[in-house]
Write a structure and sequence with these properties.
Blueprint: H1 3-16, H2 18-25, H3 34-41, H4 47-62, E1 68-70, E2 73-79, E3 89-99, E4 103-105, E5 109-122, E6 128-132, E7 136-138, E8 141-154, E9 159-160
Antiparallel strand pairs: 1-2, 2-3, 3-8, 4-7, 4-9, 5-6, 5-8
Helix pairs in contact: 1-4
C-alpha cells in the first residue's frame, strides 16, 4: 500500500470520528465517571459506532491502519495532536491480543475498544470506553481474544517505559 492510500484511509477515519472527537474533547480524563459518560453518549451498538468499528476493521485488514508492528502489537499514529480533526488529542490505533508496552499517561488517555475475535477485555474491561486519568501507568493488555483500539491522548502526551518511582 502506498503512502497516499494510507493517508487517504486515515483522513476517512478522522472524518468519521468527528462526532466522537467532540465528545472526547468535552470530557476531563480525571473525572472518575469519564468512561461511563462516553459509554452513555456513544454506545457501541448504535449504527454510527458499528460503522466506525467496521471502518477500523477494514483499515487494519487493508493495511492503511496498524501497518507497523512491534512485540506482536500492530499500531499506527493516525493523527498528531495538532491535526484539526482531533486537536488537542493525538489519535493512535492498535490491533492486539495479549500485553503491549507499559506506559504512562501524563495527561490521561481515552481508549475506544472494539472486539475482533473471542470475548476480549482490555485491562479487564469489556469492549467500549476505557479512560485513564492523568499520571496513570499501565501495561495495556487484551485478554480472551483480539481487539482493535483507538486511543486519544491529550496533547499527544505519552511516556513509554517502566513505572516511574
Amino acid at each position: 500500500m502506498d503512502r497516499e492510500q494510507i493517508l487517504a484511509g486515515r483522513e476517512r477515519l478522522v472524518a468519521a470520528l468527528a462526532p466522537v472527537v467532540e465528545h472526547v474533547r468535552a470530557i476531563d480524563p480525571s473525572e472518575p465517571n469519564a468512561a461511563s459518560v462516553l459509554t452513555e453518549r456513544l454506545p457501541l451498538d448504535t449504527p454510527a459506532m458499528v460503522a466506525l468499528a467496521t471502518l477500523v476493521r477494514d483499515g487494519v485488514e487493508a493495511g492503511w491502519l496498524c501497518e507497523k508492528e512491534a512485540g506482536g502489537v500492530r499500531f499506527s499514529r493516525v493523527a498528531k495532536a495538532d491535526h484539526p480533526g482531533t486537536a488537542p488529542h493525538s489519535l493512535d490505533a492498535v490491533h492486539m491480543a495479549g500485553p503491549g508496552p507499559g506506559h504512562e499517561h501524563p495527561q490521561g488517555e481515552f481508549d475506544l475498544c472494539f472486539a475482533v475475535e473471542g470475548a476480549p477485555t482490555f485491562d479487564g474491561q469489556p469492549p467500549g470506553w476505557v479512560v485513564y486519568p492523568p499520571g496513570s501507568w499501565h501495561v495495556p493488555t487484551v485478554a480472551g481474544g483480539t481487539m482493535d483500539i483507538l486511543y486519544f491522548l491529550p496533547d499527544g502526551a505519552i511516556r513509554f517505559g517502566p513505572k516511574a518511582g
